[in-house]
Design a protein that fits this description.
Keywords: Coiled coil, Membrane, Transmembrane, Transmembrane helix. There is one protein chain. The protein is built from six helices and 16 strands. The protein has 383 residues and is α+β, with helices and mostly antiparallel strands. Among the domains are: 127-158 and 252-288, OB fold (Dihydrolipoamide Acetyltransferase, E2P) (Beta Barrel); 162-246; 294-368, Elongation Factor Tu (Ef-tu), domain 3 (Beta Barrel). The strands form four sheets. The protein has a six-stranded antiparallel barrel with strand order 3-12-15-14-13-16. A hairpin with a 2-residue loop joins β13 (312-317) and β14 (320-337). It is elongated and about 175 Å long. The model is unreliable at 22-35, 73-109 and 374-383 (pLDDT under 50).
Length: 383
């Protein structure tokens, strides 16, 4: 029984028509344009043989694919273009595996991105620890912890009877010096008048030379005494300024504007002078400028080659884990920590939490090599 259908016979006829006769080949090397047509012919013969095998062993639906492939090879275009099987995409559209990407669709090579992490604490660079310059007893505390103060605002008032008495004594001493200066000035005027009269009489030979000499000596002595009295008045003025400064220093004022972060002053306590107070717990209070807070964070020493001022990243506080904010490297410590094997970075903050406080623990994440960082670095180099 002949099982070959009319369709099969047509296919066999096409395969015979596409076969290559040996006489078609020449002994000499073909020209380049002939070679480009002979090679597709040889490949076509191989495809025809494979198609016949497929026809014998697979279902007839495969013939449609074979005819499509044969039609492609029979094209007069010398270039061979192979299209892969169409694979269904996620949205149902067919994707051509062999299609080349256009120039505008080609992805540009991405720079390698590396993440550098570290941890540290919030720091207030502008912080003032307030001591009492002189010894005294606290009679009033004008602020509380957390209060915002400005430069020159009264913080604590002290009382020292000895300082007040010293000021009064200095004022009395200056009054005495001024009286003495007045007396010496009168004596000087009298000595000058006596010398002038003696010199006039001596010119008429009515006064001896010895008397003239004694008048000159008396004048010089009175002049020196008046000069000494003036110096005594000036010294008394300095003593008053010194005593007044000590009394005024008993009113402790804010050296900077900021927030009172610690208050150890209590009414009735006796505080020591600054020269005797060398420990922080002996101070009256501390003021920090909250507007200029930064983060000092440690990163591994192995990452120091990647660090540079201007590098940007992100920070998050342990107290506010859901409120990250931007940071930027402003300074790199000149020394490496031998114990920890880290380098300390100082980072400026951008829009941190409003209720952030000094000494809060922070974690940072810096991205090195991303597109934005590379662009910023190039712009900085051009400038």
């Amino acid at each position: 029984m002949n099982t070959t259908s009319e369709h099969d016979r047509d296919l066999a006829a096409k395969l015979r028509s596409l076969s290559i006769e040996p006489a078609a080949f020449k002994t000499e090397l073909p020209e380049p344009h002939i070679r480009r047509r002979v090679i597709p012919g040889a490949m076509l013969a191989l495809v025809a043989t494979a198609s016949l095998a497929v026809f014998l062993f697979y279902r007839p639906e495969a013939l449609e694919r074979i005819e499509t492939m044969l039609a492609g090879f029979a094209s007069s275009d010398p270039a061979i273009y192979i299209r892969g099987a169409e694979a269904p995409a996620e949205d149902g559209a067919a994707v051509e595996r062999g299609r080349a990407l256009p120039a505008d669709e080609a992805a540009s090579p991405a720079l390698p991105t590396r993440e550098v992490t570290g941890s540290g604490y919030v720091v207030a660079p502008d912080i003032a620890t307030v001591f009492s310059k002189y010894e005294g007893r606290i009679v009033a505390v004008e602020v509380e912890a957390g209060d915002r103060v400005v430069t020159g605002q009264v913080l604590v008032r002290l009382d020292d009877a000895g300082a007040r008495f010293a000021l009064q004594g200095a004022e009395i001493a200056r009054q005495s010096a001024e009286l003495a200066l007045t007396a010496k000035t009168i004596e000087l005027a009298q000595a000058r008048s006596s010398l002038t009269r003696t010199e006039r009489l001596a010119g008429r030979d009515a006064m001896s030379a010895q008397t003239l000499e004694e008048a000159k000596t008396a004048f010089d002595t009175a002049e020196n005494a008046a000069l000494q009295a003036r110096q005594d008045v000036a010294k008394a003025g300095l003593d008053i300024d010194r005593a007044r400064e000590q009394v005024e220093a008993l009113t402790v004022q804010a050296p900077i504007s900021g927030t009172v972060t610690r208050l150890d002053a209590h009414v009735g306590d006796t505080v020591l002078s600054r020269e005797d107070s060398v420990r922080e717990n002996e101070s009256l209070l501390a003021i920090a400028d909250m507007a200029t807070m930064v983060i000092d964070a440690d990163v591994a020493e192995a990452n120091i080659a990647l660090m540079r001022p201007g590098l940007r990243g992100e920070a998050v506080l342990d107290g506010f884990p859901d409120r990250p904010f931007a940071v930027e490297v402003s300074k790199i410590a000149p020394m490496i920590s031998r114990e920890k094997g880290t380098v300390t970075l100082r980072l400026s903050l951008s829009s941190p939490p409003s209720d952030m406080r000094p000494a809060m623990a922070a974690r940072i994440r810096l991205l090195v090599g991303e597109a934005g960082d590379s662009t910023d670095h190039q712009q900085g180099a051009e400038r």
